[in-house]
TrEMBL record:
GO cellular component: membrane
Coiled coil: none
Domain spans labelled Response regulatory: 743-861
UniProt protein name: histidine kinase
Segments forming domain PAS: 363-408
Native species: Hypericibacter adhaerens
GO terms under biological process: regulation of DNA-templated transcription
Classification lineage: Bacteria, Pseudomonadati, Pseudomonadota, Alphaproteobacteria, Rhodospirillales
PANTHER family from the UniProt entry: HISTIDINE KINASE, SENSOR HISTIDINE KINASE
Reactions catalysed: ATP + protein L-histidine = ADP + protein N-phospho-L-histidine
Annotated NCBIfam families: sensory_box
Gene3D superfamilies noted in UniProt: 1.10.287.130, 3.40.50.2300, CHASE domain (3.30.450.350), Histidine kinase-like ATPase, C-terminal domain (3.30.565.10), PAS domain (3.30.450.20)
GO molecular function per UniProt: ATP binding; phosphorelay sensor kinase activity
Domain PAC, residue spans: 434-486
Amino acid sequence: MRGQRVTAPPRARALRWIPLALTALLGIAASATGAFLFYDGEGERLHLALDYRAEWRAKDLETKLRAIGTPVGGFATFLAMQLADGLNPDGASFARWAQIRSDYADNKPRTYYWWPYLSTQDSAASASIASHPDPGFQTPLHYAPGGDKGEASELTLEADAQAATREVLIRAWFSGAVRMSRPYRTWGWPDSDATEIMFAAPIYRSGRMPTTIADRQASLAGVVAAGFSLHDVLEAAIRDTPRISEAIYISEEPWPADDTRQYFARYDPDKNDFIMEIGSLRPSDLAGVVIAKRVEGQGVNFYMLSQFLPAEVAAGRSPGPWLFLFSGLLLTTAAVGYVHLSLMRREALTTAVSISDARLRQTHRELEAVIRSSPAAIVCVDNARVVTVWNMAAERLFGLSALEAVGRRYQPPASGNGVQPPELGRAIAEGLMIDGTASLVTADGRKRDVSVRSAILTGDESEMLGAVYVASDVTDMVMLEEQLRQAQKMEAIGQLTGGVAHDFNNLLAVVIGNLDLIGTAFNPDSRNAKLLDGALRAALRGADLTRALLAFARRQPLQPAPVNINQLIEGVCTLLEHSLGETVAVVRELQADLWPVSIDAVQLESALTNLAINARDAMPSGGRLLIQTRNTHLDSDYALHEPGLVAGDYVVIEVTDNGHGMPPEVLAHAAEPFFTTKGEGKGTGLGLAMVYGFVKQSAGHMKIYSELGRGTTVRLYLPRLGGRIRDAGVATLLPSTAAAPKTVLVVEDNADLRRLVVGQIQGLGYKVIEAVDGDQALEIASGPGTIDLVFSDVVMSGGLSGFDLVRELRQRRPKLKLLLTSGFPGAMSVPEREIEPGFIVPILTKPYRRDELARQLREILEEAD
Ligand SMILES: Nc1ncnc2c1ncn2[C@@H]1O[C@H](COP(=O)(O)OP(=O)(O)OP(=O)(O)O)[C@@H](O)[C@H]1O
Ligand SMILES: [Mg+2]
């Protein structure tokens, strides 16, 4: 995994474009909408500005119209005052006023009127006015009989042919104030000025304005009026305003019903002039933005339409929306870039995370494999001491499967006697840290020695998460070390004692020699001779001790010679039967055809005697002393476990008693010189030391087994004469190939075991016939086929036992070779195995090794018939 690059999956790369496209779309949409709203908002603002402009113009016109009417009202007041003073205003004064008015006013009226209200009877006055000589001053005085009913208050004024002027006069009369007329057309004027408006102001006889309409009708003295060219009025209205860029229409109705013709004035900005027209206005005629405003004249309303052409409206707009759109798009580009960058960064991060994730998983796998395959047991527990890791080595060491251990607290089995703390199981269960060597009681109660290291598992904050225990089974190593230490100790003691004993022996030899010489000089009965004898005995005893020491130190002179061990044991036993007393039964089990051994016979006898005496001492109230011999082969495996032992063929002498046995601490020191549990003066503690030294000096080996209360077995291994094979392979155990292969009949009721045994024996070069039980074996043996050896199990379900079978076979074929095998050889005493006088069936103890089987088969087959 390491060094491998992990890239983003192609799917992720393809999906990268979705957020980018979304951001771009969103940005463009937002910019466009924003720009549009901006544009729209600006339209509204623009419209407001235009509206304000139109409004302002309308108000301006309104003010100016009012200003035009004001002098008319003033003059009416003047005339009213004259009338009140009894003066009759005449045409001259009127003309004078009109003159002053023309000289000083901006808006010069085209015509002035003075209409004294005269009853129809007052014809004299009418005539005087009509005959007024002042040229240019019109005094069109008209009387119109009012109403059909002939009442004065309902008189209508026939001032002019125009309905508009008539109407304004009446309005002024009735309202008591200056009134303005609708535009009307006059005759006899140049076309452009043909449209006029008239301002009229009433004069009442009382000199004061009556409050009710009826009073006003009744007390009218006359009306003053002035007609103005509408064109001039409008021109004057705009004269002192800033340049007007828009077209303006002034009419009575903003949009009169279709085809209703009316007067209207159109201001042409290009000509900077009003053009008076008559016709009809339609919205469709006017392009751009048109804003209508009401203009209140005195008593008459106008409408002013301001037309703003599209070009002008557009000119009023700011580049704001476009700037907005541009910056929006710019921002969108930046956002897309940013999103792209963050996506790349996120992708890089994801990639990095997945790389480290993969590495982590790989490391985890490696660690798992290491833990699983570790030869050392690895156990982890958490803070609650619940087991979280339990590897295969732990399964083997504790005898508990991971399935049973993981996920719960470890319950250590009750530790029996002899288990020294610290105990690993207890430490795990109690969460104790433990380092160094410890003991362990396995699930099946065995006691093991373990080497343990433990560590605390900590988290990121150094908090404790649990503990790890790593343990190896060092039982064998501890045992071997102990044995080695023991062997080295014996070696050291041997060398030390050997040196001293040797010198001492020489000294004693001189002492004894001299004592012997001195002895000849005394009468044997004399007191001196007795004293000398005591000294001599003590010296001889000293010599015995030093000999024992020398024997232990392997420095006694030995005279090895080929010896028939069985014969030698027979001799020793005869002697022992007498010396050990009647309570001790001496039993012999000696293997016939024991291999010859080269050994110092005298020393062997003394060694056996020593062992027998120890046995007797261990059986104070009597017992059984069993002496056995047999040939055996120690393979290199076994030799490895016994320091100082060489693999090869050995003759084994086993001395077993059923006495009180030894506790482990005694067993550990039993072979050391001067170690004794026997009381002062009873034992020297040199017996086993001597045997040990002698056997070692003879290239053999001694092993003591003892169980408290059961008995002791001391086993002496003596090397076979000329039969020491440094590394015994199976080849030497195979039957000699020169001869025809021998046939073995295998009788075994367990099918699996039979298959295994048949395979093993065939592998050793023999022919094999199988039988599933004793009956079938007898049947085969009765047949004509050759059978050289029958190899049978002792215990077989139903039918004949192994012993029954061999008894039967011996009767049918006396020369047939036999070998039995059993898992319980201890239960079978020699008499049981002695199926006919002098013939003991050899037994191979289960489980056996292939080498042992091969050797037994070969030995039995090579035996003389
Ligand atoms: N067969 C046995 N059963 C029980 N304990 C034994 C046996 N053989 C030896 N021992 C123990 O081993 C010790 C040492 O034995 P060893 O023969 O070396 O000395 P000893 O018998 O005490 O003295 P000695 O043999 O010199 O008279 C004995 O004291 C005894 O405790
Ligand atoms: Mg002894």
